[in-house]
Design goal:
binds 5'-O-(N-(L-cysteinyl)-sulfamoyl)adenosine, five-stranded mixed beta sheet, 31% helix, 13 helices, alpha+beta
């Protein structure tokens, strides 16, 4: 992508409304624009990141055996009356009427709708277990939308729903999602710690929030320092095998959100030097809620002995749009964002330090062609800005590799590359640059 053809409205000034660094950097880097309180338009740079995150979430859900579908954003109020949540949900729910005065709502979550789909088709335990998910926009009329995409009103969520014959089966489904979440967040360069949590309006009695530690987070958390160094299961993890050893390892060390924190247990179980009490960002939450929806909504299957039983359910959310902010909170410095490669909007940026000069233009064009041909997502800063401004913009938008092409280096056959993550620099020939970055 040539920067002169791209849409990257970088802001020079720090926007006053942004209280935390990720919100400030997303606005400054031209990633998104607020259209109303808690409602954002995703501009091209931000949208690229959002799609990368979404794709990692999808791959790990698929790997764990969940099946993707897509449910609508609008739902019938009557469906929510069946579960009793239409009135219980309160002012967070955006209620709408259509031209026939039928009551609708913009979905804040999808337990009711997926239960309706399930009960229409699945009648026998032989079709279980089943886990269905979608990645769809949600709306919650939050009292205090803030921190940009971290607490929006409209936000993108991955929500999965599992269906099992009994509690033992539901726990196996829960464990699969638990492991899939460990892998999902690790692939994005994040350390997300599963912590025991309150279930809130979703219900049930077993729940974990996946929390990225950050001072700017909204949740207070307590954990054993050792939980931060536990190994994340590899790509070869067998989801059909016994996952309980992994779950045991991750849940036997103390880790809890402030809502369920037990100070006496914390002090008893965790030696003083390992006690961590900080704040964190909730990037995902998983729930086991048994028959909370299947009973009132009559989602039953015939069990092995022929009698109908309500299924045991769980739901599993990931804050896809919130993750964009959470990753920035975890990966930035004073100059800007430092994207982990897996979610970066581009892998590399070519900075032509003397646009309009034959030798730098020719060298940049060649690099741009060769990297693109090798499938590298590369941005070419072909604007006529001065070098200093190009460095600053590249640091701000956080592309992992900066390729600096200047007349002095070229005269010696050298191009400088810089890694945004640690600022390390190296000089090498153009062909080595291509090999390094495409390799
Ligand atoms: N139905 C369940 C699981 S599918 C559910 O809705 N869970 S949730 O309420 O915990 O939301 C799932 C995830 O969405 C949260 O962990 C959080 O990362 C994200 N999320 C929730 N509210 C917001 C919001 N207002 N803005 C951005 N992300 C949010």
């Amino acid at each position: 992508m040539r920067l002169t053809r791209f849409f990257l409205p970088i802001l020079k000034e720090n926007p006053k409304e942004a209280e935390i660094v990720s919100h400030r950097l997303m606005l400054r880097a031209g990633m998104m624009r607020q259209e109303a309180a808690g409602i954002y338009a995703w501009l091209p740079l931000g949208y690229r990141v959002l799609k990368k995150i979404e794709q990692i979430v999808r791959e790990e859900q698929d790997r764990a055996g969940a099946l993707e579908l897509l449910m609508p954003t609008l739902q019938l109020a009557d469906l929510w009356r069946e579960s009793g949540r239409y009135d219980a949900y309160g002012p967070e729910m955006l209620r709408i009427a259509d031209r026939h005065k039928r009551e609708l709502l913009y979905g804040p979550t999808n337990e009711e709708m997926i239960t309706e789909i399930f009960r229409a088709y699945v009648k026998s335990y032989r079709n279980l277990p089943l886990n269905l998910y979608h990645i769809q926009w949600k709306f919650r009329d939050e009292q205090r939308p803030r921190f940009g995409v971290m607490r929006g009103r409209e936000f993108l969520m991955k929500d999965a729903y599992s269906f099992d014959l009994d509690e033992a089966g539901a726990r196996r489904s829960y464990n699969k999602m638990f492991v899939a979440y460990l892998r999902t967040f690790a692939r994005m360069g994040l350390k997300a710690i599963p912590m025991r949590a309150e279930t809130g309006p979703i219900g049930g009695d077993l729940s974990h929030e996946f929390i990225v530690l950050a001072e700017t987070g909204e949740s207070g958390v307590f954990c054993d320092r050792d939980v931060l160094d536990l190994p994340v299961p590899g790509q070869d993890v067998n989801y059909d095998g016994d996952l309980t050893p992994i779950i045991k390892q991750w849940t036997s060390l103390y880790a809890a959100t402030e809502d369920v924190h037990d100070a006496a247990r914390f002090e008893q179980e965790v030696p003083a030097e390992r006690r961590v009490n900080t704040r964190g960002i909730e990037v995902g939450q998983i729930f086991y809620f048994g028959t909370k929806y299947s009973e009132p909504m009559k989602a039953t299957v015939a069990g092995p002995d022929g009698t109908d039983v309500p299924i045991h359910g769980g739901s599993y959310g990931v804050g896809v749009s919130r993750l964009v902010g959470a990753i920035i909170e975890a990966c930035h410095d004073e100059a800007g964002i430092k994207w982990p490669e897996a979610v970066a909007p581009f892998k590399a940026v070519i900075l032509n330090l003397k646009q309009g000069s034959d030798d730098t233009d020719t060298a940049c064009e060649k690099l741009y062609r060769e990297l693109s041909a090798k499938g590298v997502d590369v941005l070419y800063d072909d604007t006529d800005q001065r070098a200093g401004a190009k460095f600053a913009a590249a640091d701000l938008i956080g592309i992992p590799w900066q390729i600096m092409v200047g007349p002095k280096g070229l005269a010696e056959g050298k191009i400088e590359i810089k890694r945004r993550a640690d600022g390390s620099r190296e000089n090498m020939s153009a062909s080595d640059v291509v090999a390094r970055i495409a390799g």
